[in-house]
Amino acid sequence: MNEFMKLLSLSKPVIQAPMAGGPATPPLAAAVSNYGGLGSLASGYLTPETLKRQIEETKQLTSAQFQVNLFVPEKREKVSRKKIEDWQNKIPLSQSAELETDEEQDWNDFYEKIDIVLNSGVKVCSFTFGVPPVDAVKELKKRDCCLIGTAVSVDEAVLLEEKGMDIIVVQGSEAGGHRGAFLHTKGEAAVGLIALIPQAADHVSVPVIAAGGIYDKRGVAASFALGAQGVQLGTAFLACMESGTSAVYKQKLIEAAETDTRLTRLFSGKPARGIVNQWMEDRRIDEDNALPYPLQNTLTKPMRKQAQLEGNPESMSLWCGQGVRAATKQTTVKELMDQLVPAGVIL
Amino acid sequence: MNEFMKLLSLSKPVIQAPMAGGPATPPLAAAVSNYGGLGSLASGYLTPETLKRQIEETKQLTSAQFQVNLFVPEKREKVSRKKIEDWQNKIPLSQSAELETDEEQDWNDFYEKIDIVLNSGVKVCSFTFGVPPVDAVKELKKRDCCLIGTAVSVDEAVLLEEKGMDIIVVQGSEAGGHRGAFLHTKGEAAVGLIALIPQAADHVSVPVIAAGGIYDKRGVAASFALGAQGVQLGTAFLACMESGTSAVYKQKLIEAAETDTRLTRLFSGKPARGIVNQWMEDRRIDEDNALPYPLQNTLTKPMRKQAQLEGNPESMSLWCGQGVRAATKQTTVKELMDQLVPAGVIL
């Protein structure tokens, strides 16, 4: 049992990626924790009240540890009225988008969620899109909360360790969904795991966890050979019965090939990897011109919501990593966990 | 010893990537072969006469096997006079570019090089940018020549096996230099090795070799864990004394971080990974508008040549993979090979 597994009392060195926006349900998080891994709730798009309810629900389903993931709020970019109107004309249903909260509201929500974590007894907290502020780190550490940062480069990993993170998830270019980047935010600089893991592991002393494109025991063994102490999987969990993935999304995952995804800013304003669909193709020409996060995300929300209701995969975000052949059929968390780390394997 | 090593009588499962345009010199190829790997000559930009001379020179330096790599000629895209003129105005020195040979000349050169391979006793021949034609495959096989194809996706790997390749190099998104793609030619579809190797290995029965971002024994072990039988390294060999890399290029490699590269079509018309420099930054806006290969390559040739002469890294192509910390200092092929597969390691 390595340092990472000891820190979190895991019997399998597997984190379920905190996939915001639906898939990371309490049943999924609880199932992963029950089978020896670390289940995750994704609070990024949740209200503090919903997060609180999800934590309670998860606690009903497992007595094992699970984590809560938070987005670190960022400085909002100024955008001209004209540019917003241009996009309102391009994005179906965007006129009905609710006006976004502001940066101050983001921080209020952030600290409210930190308080919920502190008061809930949750002992693992992870962060995406940045370094959490000093005061939050201090409070969480006082309660013996283990902190996990997300890095896409060596420099990000080093900074996260300096700022008190106990574990670093290094996210390779293969990963589905949003790049957790904060220093190297351009998608084009995305680094593949076979190159990123050893370079990161050589520059930090805390455990490094590999995320991106891993879908079976070969990816687990490779990650360990490269210097990681665990793996974080997203796409592979999307096809599990316990996930909140819609039927049409699951079907697209099952049909997809490894070359069918690309990084796009067209859904949220931040680069994220998903299966190429009509929305991405139609607006490909505007890729470099997308509004900054969270504005693009806000404006596409009604379109994505409608697509969910209609079961139309062509204008919803189909986040998916390059290890997509994980999802050849719907499976269960138990089957997946057993396949990732077969019984008797010594790590 | 695995099937790949047996096929090529190797004591180390390492191919030196056939880096066209200078670095893959006869001394480099011979050194790699002498230390138990497979050295490579890169005939892509060579005249048949120069290839012949390089083969002779390599034979003087090693009695071990080495390979010759060929570019598979492609159908040339039609381009408007206007677009060419636009680029002539943008590319320094392009007015002095020699007019490119045509497709027929490409094929004449290709077959002339095949004849040179057949008559030289070289017993390993690899291909980039496509599937070699049936008649060439037949002739090479008659002389017991082992054939290596280059794939960036599962579909490409499957097709190459169907067409008679004995070994498939799968090139991950991490790889420096040109993407060897022919079905999935868009750089944005580039797949990381941790996802690509197992998916490819599950779909072909010939040995799979991993290329891209590998720079030390951890990458070798990971590639094997993922299902590869060998590795192909480029960037790591660029920093070796025996390579034909210029001093200024070596210095850039030594200084680069893993996030400093990106895929660009601005040098040749085909996506290739290199260290971002002034030329790539200045013309970033034209990235999607580059001329097709080989036209862009022809027009940038005088600029690149002049940059080499002047030792100016800002307008030469600085091909480099994401495992760039391989090159922290100038090393030798022997040191690199020993570090990749330490004595006593059983593969």
TrEMBL record, chains A, B:
UniProt keyword list? Detoxification, Flavoprotein, FMN, Monooxygenase, Nucleotide-binding, Oxidoreductase
Q: What top-level branch of life does the organism fall under?
A: Bacteria
**Which InterPro entries does this UniProt record tie to the protein?**
Aldolase_TIM, NMO
Asked whether the UniProt record includes Transcription regulation among its keywords, one would answer no
Q: Which Pfam families match?
A: NMO
| UniProt keyword annotation of Flavoprotein present | yes
Q: Which reaction does it catalyse?
A: 3 propionate 3-nitronate + 3 O2 + H2O = 3 3-oxopropanoate + 2 nitrate + nitrite + H2O2 + 3 H(+)
Q: What processes in GO biological process is this protein linked to?
A: response to toxic substance
UniProt cofactor(s): FMN
Name a GO molecular-function annotation.
nitronate monooxygenase activity
Q: What does this protein do?
A: Nitronate monooxygenase that uses molecular oxygen to catalyze the oxidative denitrification of alkyl nitronates. Acts on propionate 3-nitronate (P3N), the presumed physiological substrate. Probably functions in the detoxification of P3N, a metabolic poison produced by plants and fungi as a defense mechanism.
Query: What family does the entry list?
Result: Belongs to the nitronate monooxygenase family. NMO class I subfamily.
Q: What is this protein called?
A: Probable nitronate monooxygenase
Read off the lineage from the record. Bacteria, Bacillati, Bacillota, Bacilli, Bacillales
